[in-house]
Structure prediction request, 294 residues.
Amino acid sequence: MGIIPLDILFGVDKFPEAGQKINGISLTIQGGGPVPNTLIGLSKFGFKTSLIAAVGKDIFGKLSIYEIKKEKVDISHFVIKGNCSAIAGGFVEKTSGRRTLVLERKIFVEPDDIKLSMLPVPKILHLDGRDIEATLKLARWGKKVGATVSFDIGSIRNDVSAVFPMVDHLVVADGYAYPFTKTTIAKKAIEKLLEFGPTTVVITEGIKGQVGFENGKFVRHKAYKVKTVDSTGAGDAFHTGYLFGLLKGFELDERLRFGSAVAALKCTKAGARAGIPKLSEVRRFLESEPEKYD
Prediction:
């Protein structure tokens, strides 16, 4: 379950200054959202996926439904309400590949929207915590039915810590982990996050790579060096690779390696979803022994 905004991204030579008018050099319009993007990646990798998300009855909601269905993600548990679907707009800087986004959202998944008896029992329940009460309901159910609970959060927007005791794999961005734990050292942040109950914690640090902890030991993996076109959705792509590895029984170091490869390849193309690579591309990339950042 997660938010599913429509992303409207303008490519620009460089970010505009306040009050400045500039010309765009490209335009990408496609669905977004951390969980939907990750599920699309897993669908491309051959897994069956299903999404719970709230969309409106407007044209943006219809487009989101069309796109996610086209990618073979089950939409039978979508919540359709209102006439104002979520939209995310922003800029992608050509020189660096960095992106800046603003999200506007007025519809949410409420606990009563989720009919647990109608849900398939998943191997992995992947959540983003944006609709916290519904997230808590699903996480409790996930633990009850024996699903592995995975949690993704990229920045501090709302307090999601109540979910952590039910999370098996807490894979979060440094933009969340460090402010929340009040430290800038990965190992210390992980130690504090482990106190909440997750069995595995991973912190992603962009081009610095990732640091994780599982079964009593820390593992670090450096990021792969590529020519970045657009970093939008890189974290979501990492989750695709990480969860693929989890489903395949990979150890933590191999999960980080695979997730890093998927994220790197995504950054070479524009768009969070359009940039998701094929499984064969990921395997060829890793076989080439790609260069890593220092």
Notes: The chain has a mean pLDDT of 94. The two ends are 36 Å apart (CA to CA).
